[in-house]
Amino acid sequence: xxxxxxxxxxxxTHLLTKVKQTSIAALGVTFGIGAYITLVCFMTGLxxxxxxxxxxxxxQIHIYNEIKPSNQQxxxxxxxxxxxxxxxxxxxxxxxxxxxxxxxPIIDYLSNNSNVEAVLPQIKTQIFYIAGSIEIGGxxxxxxxxxxxxxxxxxxxxxxxxxxxxxxxxxxxxxxxGIAEKMSLKIGDRVxxxxxxxxxxxxxxxxxxxxxxxxxxxxxSFTNIKxxxxxxxxxxxxxxxxxxxxxxxxxxxQLSKEIENQFNLRAIDIQTANAQFETGxxxxxxxxxxxxxxxxxxxxxxxxxxxNMLIYEKMNDIAILKATGFSGRDVQxxxxxxxxxxxxxxxxxxLLIGFGLANxxxxxxxxxxxxPTIETYPINLNPLFFLIGFSxxxxxxxxxxxxxxxxxxxxxxxxxIRGQ
Amino acid sequence: MMEPILEARHINKYFRKPVLFxxxxxxxxxxxxxxxTSIMGKSGCGKSTLLYILSxxxxxxxxxxxxxxxxxxxxxxxxxxxxxNKYVGFVFQFHYLLPEFSVLENVILPAKKLGEKSIEExxxxxxxxxxxxxxxxxxxxxxxxxxxxxxxxxxxxxxxINNPSIIMGDEPTGNLDSHNADNVFNIFxxxxxxxxxxxxxxxxxxxxxxxxxxxxxxxxxxIIS
Lengths: 420, 225
Hints:
The complex is a heterodimer of chains A (420) and B (225).
Chain A: H1 4-17, H2 19-55, E1 61-64, H3 103-111, E2 116-131, E3 134-143, H4 145-152, E4 158-161, H5 165-168, E5 172-176, H6 177-182, E6 190-195, E7 201-209, H7 214-217, E8 220-224, H8 225-232, E9 241-246, H9 252-263, E10 266-269, H10 270-273, H11 275-313, H12 315-323, H13 328-361, H14 383-410, H15 413-419
Chain B: E1 4-15, E2 21-32, E3 36-41, H1 47-54, E4 62-67, E5 70-71, H2 77-87, E6 88-91, H3 103-114, H4 119-132, H5 148-160, E7 166-170, H6 178-195, E8 198-202, H7 206-210, E9 214-219, E10 222-223
Parallel strand pairs in B: 3-8, 3-9, 6-7, 7-8
Antiparallel strand pairs in B: 1-2, 1-4, 4-5, 9-10
Helix pairs in contact in B: 3-4, 3-5, 4-5
């Protein structure tokens, strides 16, 4: 039987008559939560950007036909030599085609897999860029520009022109910034490319690509699938690579194994291809968590201190309340509700301040070679952070208020009254 | 026929710190309804200690305590809080009001805690009690803004708010000048005569004690007379 009305009324009166103390306690929470929100939005924003640097350029599963020696050499099939030592010199890779065999049904099959967000077919080949008598070696990749833009944020790396122009203009190419500079090319110019098999194809430049990795930018160009099939003189079902984007990156290793077994192709998941990526992300996340928890704990101690002082000052009141028939539990609830009110008000203010500061950081200019299209610092205004921040404000004020209020509950009124 | 309000049976109490000390030795007495009793004795004879046991705030004693013929020794803390709230009014030597609250709020707080009446009834009760003590004009003032004598009267009004069975006072006039002390005594006298309220007041003011119905004198932890 708790009279909440009365308890909240007493708590409110205590808080309102000590506005200064109350505000200081609430500000402690506000700054703690505000700093948490700001930092976590900013740090995860940067983390996401750094992750995207990798994720946007590495397919989560890359499927292709690998050229490698057969695992089983014919001699091991010969039963009569089972118990002998076999030495095979100079093993050569097996002759195989570059293209993925029977690719169209495989694309259909993978597209229907519920874990797969998108299947992006690509054709990779070596070419020469021809500038007068000079030939510069390079890579030409054919892909479906719209899908690449949608699933791998290709637009972030196109510093001039647009990827969709590849679809609209026949025989067009997006060329690496490095080659463009070497050959003094700009949008609208034509560049001659020559595949290894020979022949010359003039392509119109509709975009400049910059990944931020100079070695890549010096050789890499993109065109659409049809154009590259035409250059190579291959039919429509000639696809050399399949890139998968998954809904959940964590199932990539397992799925890639299944694909390898099922289709007898090489499938490499992002975790294997970029082992350092995972480590980096984990470490950065760890730092984010460590910083946030520290901030929140500091805020919690502030509240604990103030409430402790408050209770020390209110010893007399506590004794009176108990003498006039308030139970220890009532007294505890009075102080708990003060803590929770401080936590609630401070927490909400903290969320607002954090939101404001994070947005402010989001307007600061930030230029990097690696991400040519990013102009301001990235921030990640994930509602989850606000939820965590608010919950922590409530939980930490609960804990910080619980201990002092437990003390208030145990105060013996006789000691206080007689002690005076 | 005399109806006992409060009865103490074989109450013994020890202080354990700093050394074991037998404060109260086999205390037995009864307070009847409407009786205005004072407890006298030298400092350190245990009279306040006894009062706090009788008030149910101190539970660390041997023996039995009965309020309205009901044994309350060994009751739960929450139950004791309820008993204190409903049946016992307490007036301290120092006023002990909550300084942040208005006079009226201070008076009606125990009634709100008891929660037996609607808030309107409680407020009107509060005004009635303030009227009895002639301090109705202070109702809206902050408790920290009124004089010492007024504070003690507010404290008495608060003790009365739940119409308790007994009012206990621990030297309620000890901190007041003679004028205000007389005033407080007259209020007690009046409550006893007009409302048949039982009072148990610890005091070492002889003039005060002489005017009460009955004096319990204590010495060395025993009741002498």
